[in-house]
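Before the break, one more example. Copy the sequence into your notebook; we will annotate it together after we see the structure.
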Amino acid sequence: NEQGKVIGQGTTDADGNVDIILTEPLKDNESIHIIATDQAGNSSQQEIDVGDVSAPLLQDAVINPKGEVQLSFNEALDAAHPPKVDDFIVMADAKAIVPSQIIIDGNHVTLVFNPPIYQGQNISVQYKDPTVANDLDGLQDMSGNDVEGFSQVISQNNSQIQNPSLPSTDL
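Here is what the structure looks like once it is written out:
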């Protein structure tokens, strides 16, 4: 790493394929210096800039005035490779509801429902990453780092939509 500390070792096979095992995780935008030495003592060196290796983090979850789940993350997400609606488990008053649409815009993910979420409903949302590895489609940042699975009870329901099956409180 940048401090000159050895953070991994590796091997090269007969075809020149390199397999490196790291002893500590890489950090965002870290520069690493790789030195390869063969059995005869010949060595070659290469400097690599790591880039973004951190998973996006959920920062906030609310119900917006249109009755949609609004998730906010600490960095922009990849709208070109969205997750599937069944990657989410959303509960409204202990009943499962399925998003009809997922909208990714910058660092926000909006889960749209038909019918929408109503005023006063208790909502929880859970996201499950489809696999342990980085996926082609799933909640991920622009570098392909997957959002780790999460479960969140949403305490702020700002829905402006009244449940039509409940009596009106208008006078």
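The radius of gyration is 23 Å. The chain is about 0% helix and 35% strand. Try to locate both features in your own notes.
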